[in-house]
Amino acid sequence: MAEELTPETPEETEDQPIKQRKNGLYQGVSDELAENMKSGWADTELRGLAPIAQAEHTAARRAALSARFPGERLVVPAGNLKTRSNDTEYSFRASTEYAYLTGDQTQDGVLVLEPVKGGGHQATIYLLPRSNRENGEFWLDGQGELWVGRRNSLSEAEQLLGIPAEDVRELPGALKDATGPVRVVRGHDAGIEAALTDKVTAERDEELRVYLSEARLVKDAFEVSELQKACDATARGFEDVVRVLDKAEATSERYIEGTFFLRARVEGNDIGYGSICAAGPHATTLHWVRNDGPVRSGDLLLLDAGVETNELYTADVTRTLPINGRYTELQRKIYDAVYEAQEAGIAAVKPGAAYRDFHDAAQRVLAEKLVEWGLVEGPVERVLDLGLQRRWTLHGTGHMLGMDVHDCAAARTEAYVDTTLEPGMCLTVEPGLYFQADDLTVPEEYRGIGVRIEDDILVTEDGNRNLSDSLPRRADEVEAWMAGLKG
Ligand SMILES: [Mn+2]
Questions:
Q1: 275 C-alpha to ligand 1 centroid (Å)
Q2: Cα(299) to centroid of ligand 1, in Å?
Q3: pLDDT at position 143, please?
Q4: 276 alpha carbon – ligand 1 mean position (Å)
Q5: Domain extents for the chain?
């Protein structure tokens, strides 16, 4: 990548460093060049733009937010770039709250809902406008469009998002001057928080964050279609991986990570979380994301990965595959037990069921298997009461899924784990069994085997729909699917 304004003549470097900033602009530019750069640029303003596909949904979400906090100013930042090292940044990912309420993903953007007399709120989106040509910022400033690419004009943003747009550079001052109660979503934009420091409290801001988490528990039609899109792209990413397992064997787990990432970037925005590409005993490490290990024929590959769509909805899918295409007898026995547990878990996902039901159903099956195999002393009821199965089941059986992989994480216990399922909720069902390589309490042949199967389940009016069921789950179907892809 290029550096900003590489000096072209020696005297510029020595006598007058070109990178001396003054008023945000770089010095060391001749008057002739500065004058020349002001003009000769076409008008590229776009007119008559159609609103984005989810504009009606984001309007409904803002209306619900408005009703929950009458008479209060609400501030929801997109967030800023984060430094990776020196002058390079991580790729930007807008805050979930901001993207959910606006459909926009612009860095440094801020949504403000201002209370109006007579009730309700006026929404305004604050964005950086197109770069000024007259004062040179478009080519002399690091955030100038010459460097980072064309932005929407404020008028274009208004047409696309259906929200009046203003210059974000004026927002901190306006917030400092504002009177009346204010809440801000914290953790995304330190500059905006600093402008509000005298006006907000942590407790009241947390109530806003909790509301925005709980509002996302039930997905609208747009969100469901995005989650389906994410699952479909993810399924294609898993197929990509199966096709290149020989190349992974010749290199490492990184080949799997890179292969899935390619699909995520081509069909979506990114991966929704760090891909877990765990071959052999790495499958027993729940968050194995180093992905630097060998891939060996005869071992299992636990692949836990999800494509995030361009609108920021992610899948979260796991398959545990025999690297050479055939499960061994013991691998299949463990796999079948996890499959049976997952079937029991999925069957418990339906409207009116307690959220905890699918977890309990899956854990019961796994406990039964562990007793049957003689790994833990029964009866099953004793094992479940004491939680003894957890040495090998390790984690909860699932979680809400949406824009965040662990979605709605700020929801209150009574609204999430103690709630009953409703149509439109989407959750993962992902039981697993993990026998650590150094677990002396299990027979040697079990050690280093980890199996998880994870699908994304939408609660429907009459039961559920498996959004990720285009990927096979039963052991024989997995083998047939792999054979077909490698053939
Ligand atoms: Mn998951």
A1: 11
A2: 22
A3: 87
A4: 11
A5: 55-214, 221-486
Q: 402 C-alpha to center of ligand 1: Å?
A: 11
> Considering only CA atoms, which of 372, 354, 364, 427 is closest in space to residue 393?
364
Q: Ligand 1 centre and the CA of 9: distance in Å? A: 56
| C-alpha–C-alpha distance, residues 321 and 242, integer Å | 9
Q: Which tens digit of pLDDT belongs to each residue from 307-316?
A: 999 999 999 9
User: If you average pLDDT over residues 236-244, what whole number do you get?
Assistant: 98
* Confidence band, pLDDT 50/70/90 cuts, at residue 3: low
| Residue 28, pLDDT score | 79
Summarize the confidence of residues 135-152 as an average pLDDT: 92
The CB density around residue 134, as the number of other CB atoms within 10 Å, is 9
Q: Determine if the peptide bond prior to 77 is cis (ω within 30°).
A: no
What is the structure's pLDDT at 19? 41
Percentage, residues of the chain above pLDDT 90: 92
Q: Which CATH superfamily is domain 55-214 in?
A: Creatinase/prolidase N-terminal domain (3.40.350.10)
| Cα 286 to ligand 1 centre (Å) | 10
CATH of span 221-486: 3.90.230.10
